[in-house]
Amino acid sequence: NIGTRSLGAAQAALNTIGHNIANVNTPGFSRQEAVLSTANGQFTGAGFFGNGVDVTTVRRQYDQFLTAAVQSNEARAAADAARANQLNQLDRLFASPELGVGAAMDSAFSALGDVANRPGDNAARQTFLARANQLAGTINTVADRLSELDRRNEEQIRTTVSQVNSRLTAVALLNKQIAESAGTGHSANDLLDQRDTAIVELNRLVRVNTVAADDGTLNVFTNGGEALVLGGTVARLGAKPSAEDATHLQLTLTVGSGTVNLAANALGGGSLSGLLRFRDEDLASAMNEIGRIATVIADGFNAMQNAGIDATGSPGAPMFTLASPKVLANAGNSGTQGLQVTVSDAALLKASDYKVTYDGTNFTVIRIADGNVTTPLTFPTTVDGLNFTPGATGTMNAGDAFLVRPLSEAGASLKMQLLAPGQIATGLAATVQVGAANQGAASVLAFAVTANTASTAQPVTLAFTSPTQYELTDTGTGASLGTGTYTPGAPISLNGWDLTLNGPAVTGDTFAIGPTASPQVDNRNALRMLGLANERSVDGGTLNEAYAGLIGDVGVRVQSARQASSLSGQVLSDAVSRQQQVSGVNLDEEAANLLRYQQAYQASAKLIQTAQNLFDTLIATVGR
Fold first, then answer.
1. How far apart are alpha carbons 94 and 351 in whole angstroms?
2. pTM (2 d.p.)
3. Residues paired with residue 59 on neighbouring β-strands, in sequence order
4. Using CA atoms, how far apart are residues 386 and 336, in angstroms rounded to an integer?
5. pLDDT digits (tens, 9 = 90+) for 491-520
6. CA separation for the pair 412, 136 (Å, rounded)
């Protein structure tokens, strides 16, 4: 009997060792060990005699704290890796030579410089139009690539949600099988390993926390505390069009008949968290920045065209068209009144979307990029160069909200108008001439047309009635148009133009303002247009500085994401290494155990053989 027990124990140990060796490369497998104990002995008059060995159970080498560390670090590493992977695509986009917006801007302004030098040269004008069209096309391409990256990111979010649901179902099924085996009094080691592996894979997608139940099952919760698996009951993660913006997905959680929205910042980790962060922070920043550059270009050139005249003397036509700011009413709004948003000053625009809420009395404008809040507000009002005006009809109710995207579609919608070379407004509608009989030293310091109105080119005479006083009169009728006090360096404004004089004047000095005689060779507005290159019109920076800032921002985000991914990956690797020191299969150790229990098995067999020989001898002796 002792030999039989010993043989069975050695065989159980050999089976366990073989199982370990067979699963040395199985992901998530924990090394198992046959647990042996001394069998209950027998008391006799001659003393206590042992009855051999029993196999108590098969135990897996497992540490719940090391496993929990692997799971949490898996979520963090997956989030960083997903974001870094998406940012690498963004980096490659801006590193592409054919998508150099900065180079396209330099080329367009260089061609404009030729126009300013030779305003009467149609070839120079045609070249500038071609380069300006190329600039618009380059910005369109960058914006389209960003939009395509956004669409692919949304597809990955949807796919990841499906993978989460698949893992949740697997955990619930394993919970059921483990609970059914709980009545045996032994651990279902392989099932427990499979469930741990499923939890690790789940953390790779979305950060989860687990709580063990008395029946051996695991209850699974999101990082924010929402239940995902309770025993065998499974919640379902969903991705539906957002109430704020139907082009973006909103995560939902359905338990039974109830559905709640999940906030992206409550996920805590996993690739799903990384994808959402890339969409809401990194990609949104790039799309808004390229849209702001497009808006400033369109606004600047159109304003210059409006202030000048073309080769025929007609007011300049707009050079670019651009989509208006996009306003999205929240799907949950109960009011019927909309919201209108227009750009009032492109130089003040921020590269951000905005959330507008109404509490029944006042509005609140939240700049999403940095969380800046402007409240309380009554509309119409202006915030960050944007005019906010309630819709002309309908009513707005407390709780109504709007998402304002002033720049996200600007880059893709920037279009060059079909202008003829002669329609470039290189000149100004009016010019100023110094009176030939002037005796004073007053001279023209600057002359600019600020608004090209119907009366801008009206002939006007500025005459000094004293060294410090002047009068403006209609040259044709002699009618007075106003008087003023002369201050050297201070502009004198009328009919949409500003005249700045410098130096002392004497009584009788005159300056004549009248229509430009040869607009086709006038380059004054072309020079002003050329100044757009150095104008600090993008939140305090030039166009090239803004684009360089965009490239720099993308580079910083990419480098930061790569470092974060590398660091979290190393931390995960260390956690896995510590966990494998306890749970991993060591083939050298298993080989040594194999020899040890093989010898025990052979010795047990020898014991049985010896017992058999004793019985045979005893029987033979009795028979005689």
1. 17
2. 0.86
3. 33
4. 22
5. 999 999 999 999 999 999 999 999 998 999
6. 9
